[in-house]
Amino acid sequence: MMNHFFPLLFVSVLCMNSFSGVQGRKWKGEGTTQNLESIVTGRCYDYIRILNPAVGEKNCSQIWEAFKNAFINKDPCNILPGDYELFINLTFHTIPPNKSLFWENNQLLVNRFADRGRRYMALADTLFGFIGDFLNWCGQADSPGLDYESCPTVMECENNAVESFWRMASSIYARHSSGVIHVLLNGSADGGAYPQPGFFADYEIPNLQKDKISQIVIWVVDDIEGPDIDSCGAHSVKTLETRLTTLGYDVACTDNDKSVMFLLCLDNPDHSKCAVASSAPAAQRGPISSDRGGSWNKLMFVSFAGFLFRFALVY
């Protein structure tokens, strides 16, 4: 009798533990990133000491407290963009003119292309964006702790801690962009290069200051192995061009801009998009220009790659 009892007890305990684990996950999203406080304060010091000391002195301890207090002890589905106002005030710094780089559906490419602010300053290259990049976090109602088990997704509630953070950060970033700004879109993205709804459509375009913007340059770049779904003057990009010109902006659009394609080709030098030269002239469409870009021969690519390598050695 006892021999039969122990297996049954063991199975029962396993089932109870499994059920308990499921019950502990209140939300469908990933929980708070482990060591969040250390990462946030560490990124703060990394930014002001190494990446961009020109922003001046910042109190990284106060920045962590402002960040944490935006969502701690609150319903994780009732965090508003304005809750991060103090955090933004403590981390804010000037965005250099002509350096802003907006994007949709190509975050990793943008991070590489911007080169941590050396080439452009995307949102993730500002102090406030750098601190939150690729992290996840949420609190719990009536609790001073972080929820490491799970956090709500956008599908579960729009006003979650991470979504509201990026809405606030995107709005501030757009509001303080100036000069010629660039928008890097993914021409191979399902559903189109210019998604609606989307951060650029809903939080960045509405916050652009027209008197500060001299031109908006759109780059539509296909994935190196991806299909050509969207392009300048067509589909969702045409919708974007029309919206911006209606708002009174000077707009230029280029497909597969060579400066971006060179970066993609560094990892794929033998791909056909990187090896075949094209001398097709750019097509003009009134105030909006389109250059299909095409590709170029290997000699040009190797020469440019050599230049990048020598540049890297110098710096």
TrEMBL record:
Provide this UniProt record's keywords sorted from A to Z: Disulfide bond, Hydrolase, NAD, Signal, Transferase
Please provide, in alphabetical order, the Gene Ontology terms of the cellular component aspect for this entry. plasma membrane
Which biological process annotations from GO are given for this protein? positive regulation of B cell proliferation
What the entry lists under Gene3D superfamilies is as follows: ADP Ribosyl Cyclase, Chain A, domain 1 (1.20.82.10), NAD(P)-binding Rossmann-like Domain (3.40.50.720)
Give the matching InterPro entries: ADP-ribosyl_cyclase (IPR003193)
Its EC number(s): 3.2.2.6
Give the signal peptide range.
1-24
* GO terms of molecular function: NAD+ nucleosidase activity, cyclic ADP-ribose generating; phosphorus-oxygen lyase activity; transferase activity
Superkingdom assignment: Eukaryota
Spell out the PANTHER family in the cross-references: ADP-RIBOSYL CYCLASE, ADP-RIBOSYL CYCLASE_CYCLIC ADP-RIBOSE HYDROLASE 2
User: According to its UniProt record, which protein family does this protein belong to?
Assistant: Belongs to the ADP-ribosyl cyclase family.
User: Which protein is depicted?
Assistant: ADP-ribosyl cyclase/cyclic ADP-ribose hydrolase
Query: To which species is this protein native?
Result: Cyanoderma ruficeps
Q: Give the taxonomic lineage as stored in the record.
A: Eukaryota, Metazoa, Chordata, Craniata, Vertebrata
